[in-house]
Specification:
Order of helices and strands: HHHH
Helix content: 55-70%
Low-confidence stretches: none
Mean pLDDT: 79
Distance between the termini: 37 Å
Shape: rod-shaped
Number of helices: 4
Radius of gyration: 27 Å
Structural class: mainly alpha
Number of domains: 2
Strand content: under 5%
Amino acid sequence: MTRPPKETDMKREHRVTIRLTDTEFSIIENAAEQAEMSISEYMRTQTMEGQVNARFEIVADVAEIKKLIGEFGKIGSNLNQIARYFNQGGIISTEMKNEIRKSLRDIYEMKYEVMKMAGDFHGSN
């Protein structure tokens, strides 16, 4: 069964060509996919009607996020204790320097974990 011909006023006879960088094309391609549209349909809708509402699904590892939040809380508490010690006139000692280094190391390790998780999330799109 063949497709019926389009009415004359609905037939798309004009072509518009634009050049995009790889990044721009990737953004548009992903947005069209999220909106469940072809790229042409997405671009037409964006141009004629304005913003297209895309549907995003975010999947998060809640247990891992809760673990990170707990670790951030512990580090924050340690840093508050260190700040309180110095604000009360505490003298910097080897033990205090080691505690500061440990807290900073923990923060950088957690930053790496968060970046890794974000990279995994970004890579899944």
